[in-house]
Amino acid sequence: GFVSGERADRLRALPQAEVxxxxxxQLDAIFGSTSDPHPASEACTGSLVADWGKDPxxxxxxxxxxxxxxxxxxxxxxxxxxxxxFVGEATQEGVNPCIQAAxxx
Length: 105
Prior knowledge:
- 39% of the residues lie in helices and 0% in strands.
- The two termini are 19 Å apart.
- The chain has five helices and no strands.
- It has helices at residues 5-12, 16-31, 39-43, 72-77, 99-104.
- By secondary structure, it is mostly helical.
């Protein structure tokens, strides 16, 4: 799941297992049916909780696609001289930005 703002602050105080359980319950509510009410909870074999708010560089920030932005993510990812200034989902052209792109980079 993706959580931001005050809700993220509340979840930050919980154990990671409880955060994962709450996210699975959301997926169960979306994809569950009367014959299979907890598909996500039953299928989950593990979880990873990433707190981007604690990351000293990201500090919880994220990007989103913008008009006329095609190709700009690649430019942002390019080193200047021998230094790399930007990484993460803001530099990922191949994946719609957010959590998956951040994890990939």
